[in-house]
Amino acid sequence: xxGKEIKITVAQKxxxxxxxxxxxxxxxxxxxxxxxxxxxxxxYEVVNNLDEKxxxxxxxxxxxxxxxxxxxxxxxxxxxxxxxxKRSISSRVSSLWEMICEIESKRLKGYGDVSASLKEYLDPVxxxxxxxxxxxxxxxxx
Length: 142
Hints:
Blueprint: H1 10-35, E1 38-40, E2 45-47, H2 52-75, H3 85-101, H4 105-108, H5 116-140
Antiparallel strand pairs: 1-2
C-alpha cells in the first residue's frame, strides 16, 4: 500500500482506532502476564505456569501484533490515546461503587430472602466500602 492513498471515513477511522486500542491494551496485559512470576491477593492468585518456550512464543507473537498495530496506526494516522492516572482511577472507582451497591441486602433480595444475620453483617461492611471508595474520589479531586 506504500504510496497509495487510503480513503477512510471518520466513522471507519474511529471504529478501527477503538478496536486497535482495546487490542493494544489486551496484548500489553498478556505481555505482563507472561513476565510476572505470579501475584497473590485476597480472593485470587495468578500462577505463571508458562514454560520458557511458551512464554517466548507468546511474547514473539504479541510483538508481531504490536508491530502491525503500529503500522496501521501510522498508515491511517491514528493518534495515541493518553490516559491520566486520576481519570483512570476515578472511572474504576465509579464502576466499583456501582457493583458494590449490588451486594447490599436490599438488592440481594432478588436472589432470595435475605436473613437478618446476613443483613446485619453485610450492610455495614458494604457501607464502609462505599465510604472508602468515595474517599478515594475525594483524594483525587482535592
